Amino acid sequence: MIVVNVKDQDGGVIKEIIYANITDDTITVELQLPDSTLITQHIDFTKEVQIVQVLLLGEEERGQKPYQILCFVNHVQANEFISPDAMSKLRQKNPGTIRVAEDNKGVFNVTIDMKIKLKDSIYISQHIGSLCSEALDTTFTSKVDIDKWATVPGMYLGNLLQAVEYINYKAPNTNLKLCRDTGKVWSHCLCTMKVSIPWYPCALKFCKDHIGKKSTSVDSYRCGIQTCGKIMNFMYSVKHKQHCLTIE
C-alpha cells in the first residue's frame, strides 16, 4: 500500500491510497473528493475489468437518500496500468510531496446502456458482488464492453449476456434530455457522472546502461514509473430527475 498526495484538475490537493493484491491480480485506488464523494477504482487484471465505485452524499431536502452508491464497470486494457506485482514492489519516497501526473490522458466519454444483475455478476468479475453490493439497481456497463470481454480468454458471450439487462427508461426513438436541462422532477433524463483519477502508475520506466567501459552493448533496467491521470465521463439514463445526484 502507498499513500500519495496528488494535485487534482482544480489545483486542490487530495489523498490517494493505492493497494496491490498479487493473489487476486488486482489494484485498487481510493480517494475522497473535497465534497466528501468517495471514489474507488478497482482493476481486475485477469478479466480485464475496471470497477469504479462512487459514493455520493444526497440532499434529503431534495427527497434524496442520505447517500447513493453507483458502480460503473468497463473493459480495461491490462497495459494501461503497471502490474500488481510491480505495484507491490514500489517503495514510497518523500511521502509529503504533492504529486502531479506526468501524462494527462484526457477525458474518456462512456455511454452506459446496460445494468448488471449482481446475482450473475461473477460472470464478469468476482469483485463486483462485494464492491457493488449496495448498488443493486445502479451497477452499470455497456454492450460495447460486453463484446470486448467476450474476446478475453475464459469469458463467454452467453454468460456475459446473462449477467446484464438493457436500461429501458424511455420510449423507442425518444431522445432524452440531460437531467440538468430538464425542468420536471419526474421526467426520464440523462445523468452524467464525471470521475477523475488524477494520478496513478500507468507504466514502468526503463533506462539504458552500457555493459562495461569498452563494451558497445547496451542493457536496460527498470528505473522508475510513469504516472498518468484521466477523467471518465459516464452518461446513463435515470427514471426520474431526482435520481441524478450530480446535477449542479
From TrEMBL:
Protein name from the UniProt record: Out at first protein
Pfam families reported in the protein's UniProt record: OAF_C (PF22873), OAF_N (PF14941)
Signal peptide stretch: none
Domain Out at first C-terminal as annotated: residue spans: 179-247
Family statement: Belongs to the OAF family.
Protein species of origin: Aphis craccivora (Cowpea aphid)
All residue ranges annotated as the Out at first protein BRICHOS-like domain in the record: 2-149
